[in-house]
Amino acid sequence: HSLNIQTFPEQLESQLKHHLSRIQQLLATSTSWTWDNLIEPLETMEDELERLWAPLSHLHAVVNNEALRHCYQTCLPILTRYHTTIGHDKMLCEEKMYHDIYNKNMLKTH
Known about the structure:
- Helix 1 (8-29) packs antiparallel against helix 2 (35-62).
- The protein is 79% helix and 0% strand.
- By secondary structure, the protein is an all-alpha fold.
- It starts with 7 loop residues before the first helix and ends with a helix.
């Protein structure tokens, strides 16, 4: 995979839209949350995002030419919208959900 800074913002936007759709599917398919049906898929999506974003972020830090800077700056609002959407999702921010997952995992290990 080579990094194409002309198409990178669209690629990022596409991946993040897919992730938001997947998150909504996850939240709609269960009311009994576990590591396997919520946390692991969220972690997988975060890893996918990191694998996509890290090369551009790294190049921006070490090369930092005008084209890379433009691409990077174009992507920042896209990432911000994504993280804001997740951060304001009432279900994902429900503390009880995470306590339940933690308690289920603790029961599995004892």
